[in-house]
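Bug #2210: token dump truncated for Transcriptional regulator, IclR family?
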Amino acid sequence: MPGESVASRTLAVLGAFDEEHRRLRLSDLGARAGLPLSTTHRLVAELVGWGALRRLSSGEYVVGRRLWTLGLLAPMQTGLRETASPFLHDLYGATLSTVHLAVREGDEVLYVDTLRGNASVPIVSRVGSRLPLHSTGVGKVLLAHAPDDVRRAVLSAPLQRVTPYTITQPAVLERQLTRARSDGYATTTEEMTLGACSAAVPITADGQVVAALGIVVSDLRRSRGRLVAALQVAAQGIGRSLGG
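Reproduced locally. Full output below:
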């Protein structure tokens, strides 16, 4: 649009990609960015040349490796991932289940690192993906410890029903968040994906909850206590390392 800088137009093109739009044709990129097709074509060509985008044989565009590598240099993600990595591997080795490291970004949970376990348990999250706070274990933990205005905003907005078991009643979710703060962990039962349950605990450094650590299994009924204890030991180790 007239008056917009080249940088703002370039960011609009990159911002056209999200969790639901991982592959986009040139026309879709222009429409989502709100730019003329000729402008989109020029910017996309430059982004492909630099490595920020990649063109597939189908004609669609995806985020390029160079942009992803650049994102990993963000201090929060780099320091957290590197510090937590040995603890995630220990947790995975002890449980052989999928483990997640996540942070809150606005009203969503951002997955910073993942080690995948039993392939029979369906997993929808990937490193770099964002999911609703209210339907994930790590999300509930982060929402429970989020600022009051963030909790109020989430509880006052419509809660998306992802599966038939997703908690969509604000009063029920609020009680779960209160329990998560008092018990020190949160759980989900097929609320994000059918066939998958999760448990998660907060990671605290210097008195602040900075991330969440979660695990995904097919059933929590027999193993909840053991898994929560393992999560808490790992989370305490990560928190001490971050604080140090």
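Output looks complete on our side. The chain has two domains: 6-64, 72-243. Marking as cannot-reproduce; reopen if the truncation happens again.
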